[in-house]
Amino acid sequence: MDAAVALESTVIAHGLPAPHNLDAARRCEAAIRAEGARPCTIAILKGQVRVGLRPDELRRLATASDVRKVSLRDLPVVVARELDGATTVAATLHLAWRAGIPVMATGGIGGVHRRVDGRPAADISADLEALARIPAIVVCSGPKIILDLEATREQLETRGVTVVGYRTGTMPAFYCATSGLSVDVRCDTPEEVVALYRARLRLGLPGAVLVTVPPPDRVALPPESVLPALEQALRDAEARQLRAEALTPFLLARLRDRLGSRVLQANIALLEQNAIVAARIARVLATSAVSLP
């Protein structure tokens, strides 16, 4: 098996501001190569699914204004109309699995969105459905902190996704080292993660092993500094009646505006760290006897 790591492209086209988006993409790919694995950034270019991008194609995703954000529902539209698209976690996971790549790295997964009016949230990310369906290993820093973390954790449990704390006993929350919520199991090495994944495959279980990695200590943000800024950002979003795909980039941009460069530094650092962890897992998986379904 090839030691390959899939990378999503929405973070390049829509998640980070220029020029940091291109820098982060290059750093993640370089980190994977340095670990002896192969980076495969996934995107749709002129209607063609691309698993692995050239440097000029990464640059286009980072600079063009007409790159569509592509989740599962959007894939056939972008392909049929020969458009350019940056794939979310859900779409990347789907395309990576079809290409025979069972390991993926990202920043934070989507989940259940929060509301400020006290009503139950109806907006649930397609990432959760993909994680429940596709038997892969996804390395991230937990759900994005803009989400309802408790509801997202409950959804992961309900959908049968095994949540791993990588060298931690609690699930991180993107920029923050912990959400205060438990994981299903702690793993301290890539070998432990692969053993857990192999057990899931032998048992015929659908769905992913979600490996959650806290951001590096040097850049992790304390929740007490993030949550007030998040509450204000949610109120701003509610006033603008933002929903669906517009909500996440708006909230993340608001946090960057309010908390400054610390948010950007944390985001880039955790992306690079997750890429390294994923590459190490991919290398172990490539040398083990695993038969993918």
UniProtKB/TrEMBL annotation:
Binds 1 Mn(2+) ion per subunit. Mn(2+) binds at residue 123. Its EC number is 4.2.1.70. GO terms for molecular function: hydrolase activity, acting on glycosyl bonds; metal ion binding; pseudouridylate synthase activity. One of its GO terms (biological process) is nucleobase catabolic process. InterPro entries: Indigdn_synthA-like, PsuG. It is an enzyme of class 4 (lyase). Belongs to the pseudouridine-5'-phosphate glycosidase family. The gene is psuG. Homotrimer. Transmembrane segments: none annotated. Catalyzes the reversible cleavage of pseudouridine 5'-phosphate (PsiMP) to ribose 5-phosphate and uracil. Functions biologically in the cleavage direction, as part of a pseudouridine degradation pathway. It comes from Rhodothermus marinus (strain ATCC 43812 / DSM 4252 / R-10). One of its GO terms (cellular component) is cytoplasm. Substrate binds at residues 69, 89, 125-127. The lineage of its organism: Bacteria, Pseudomonadati, Rhodothermota, Rhodothermia, Rhodothermales. Its cofactor is Mn(2+). Keywords: Glycosidase, Hydrolase, Lyase, Manganese, Metal-binding. The active site is at residues 8, 144. This is Pseudouridine-5'-phosphate glycosidase. HAMAP family: PsiMP_glycosidase (MF_01876). It catalyses: D-ribose 5-phosphate + uracil = psi-UMP + H2O.
